[in-house]
Input
Amino acid sequence: MNKEPLNIVSVWTRQIESGQQPSGKDLQEHLSSVHDNNPGFTEAVAWNCRDINGKNSYELLADTIDKNYHSHVLDLACGSGVLLDLCNRRYGSELELTGVDMNDAELQLARKRLSHTDIKLHHGLAQDLNFISDSSVDVILCHWALTLMDPVVPVLITAKRILKKNGIFAAIIDGDPAKAPGYHEIHNIIYEHVRREYPNYGEIELGDPRVRTADGINELASKTFVDFDITITPLLLNLDESPDKLAREVSGFFYASFVLSVDGHSKMLYDLEKYLSSQLQEDLSCFNMPVNLIVIRHK
Output
């Protein structure tokens, strides 16, 4: 979670500002800049947002593992190692756990968090996992990163290559905002402030927009995973906090907030807190987060 707002300026933001189409490499460099300055920023909101059964998005992914059939689990875009740590605490030595991430700052946090384990961590891109053998992984987990990967088709092709015959690929991706009360309002407050500094922000999505809808990811995945069952489960996660704390935590979950100037960030937080204060229930405000859990497995 970021402590101070940082005005992230990158080739990607300059391309957006000028109305040009950034490349996949531009996006990777932009995401790296955000994570270099704010490693581990997704943890607080993602860990504390829970579904009706009290499970967060990391736990929902870990639930797809069956220790009776699975022995090797890969966390794709493992970040600071939260999901790997959870899997290790659940299953310990019963599983071989591996993590891959493109960002050194995140991997540094992961190495520290997992220093007491024998979990293997690698620096690499999801599009090119040439250090992982064909048909060697039982389960691939991907927590909220597939949405940001561009190009994403090589990621899916690589995932299919390294999965064992009866393997599973499971990912948490964006859900339908219309199913989450108040999500549009919070999103719009953040983007309204960002567009004051970057008028074209939002016209070009981070990553492949097809991954942001259930229909889009289903169509996309079906072209690669031809002989697989694809299940997409919509879920709603929520977090209750005081308006001031929730405003800061929620804003830190949106990549858009990191491109704001210090002054713009402060004004955004003020407006977020004002909105959340208007939604109080028993002195707490609620953030509702829509997600999709996609699970791809052999028929």
The chain has a mean pLDDT of 92. The first strand starts at residue 72 and ends at 76.
